[in-house]
Amino acid sequence: MVHQLQACNPPLGPQPPNPAFYSPKQQTLQMKEKVFSLSGDDFTVKTVEGTEICKCKGKVMSISDKKKFTDIQGNEIFTLSNKLLSIHKSFHAEAPGKADFEVKGHFSLLSSKSSVHFTNAADGQQVELEVKGDWFDRSATITYGGRPVAQIQRSFMNYRQIFGDKQTYYVLVAPNVDLSMIAGVCICLDEKENEK
User: Which domain, by its residues, includes 168?
Assistant: First the structure.
């Protein structure tokens, strides 16, 4: 696992710089999923220190499998939905009055590959992030111009997690990278792999 990630300058992400979603120092996010939730896939995204960043609520029985991300006060940040007509599983995040982003799946024989596209709120530049994962050991790296901006680790579901109704993801995120967007990308990757 990458232990030290370089800061992104200007800040990187679709949301306007906001203290709730950006940090001047490297953060490790902890995301918990309710495995058997009746309302869909529910996640709480927080730092390992316990600071809550955002929440994700899934909508069960939805054709586009929408997932709504809110801040801690319940205000919508963005809604993720499946792109139904794509060849490889892809997602679109729509944000009310803010920048959107898109996660596109790509064919790969032995690993998971995706790309993330958005207009960077800090400088107006078009950005493409590359996502490469090895789902045999449940890990992935998100890079920008070849430089890692996030590292995802997830343990295989164990007995305790099954009966405790939770799975946990840990995501190391570089300074000045939108934490809510990275959380959304992680959930897209999980959806893509679970479909297989």
Answer: 27-195
Domains identified in the chain, total number: 1
Lowest mean pLDDT, pick from 8-17, 92-101, 114-123, 174-183? 92-101
Residue 51 has which token pair?
Answer: 């600071």
134 C-beta neighbours (distance < 10 Å), count = 12
Could you tell me the pTM of the whole model? 0.84
In one letter, which amino acid is 85?
Answer: L
Question: How confident is the model over 102-121, as pLDDT tens digits?
Answer: 888 765 545 668 899 999 98
| Structural domain contains residue 39 | yes
3-state secondary structure the chain: CCCCCCCCCCCECCCCCCCCCCCCCCEEEEEEEECCCCCCCCEEEEECCCCEEEEEEECCCCCCCCEEEECCCCCEEEEEEECCCCCCCCEEEECCCCCCEEEEEECCCCCEEEEEEEECCCCCCEEEEEEEEECCCCEEEEEECCEEEEEEEECCCCHHHHHHCEEEEEEEECCCECHHHHHHHHHHHHHHHHHC
**Any domain includes 16:** no
Q: Is residue 40 part of a domain?
A: yes
CATH of the domain at 41: 3.20.90.10
Cis-peptide, bond into residue 17, ω within 30° of zero: no
For the segment 14-35, what is each residue's pLDDT rounded down to a tens digit? 888 788 899 999 999 987 766 5
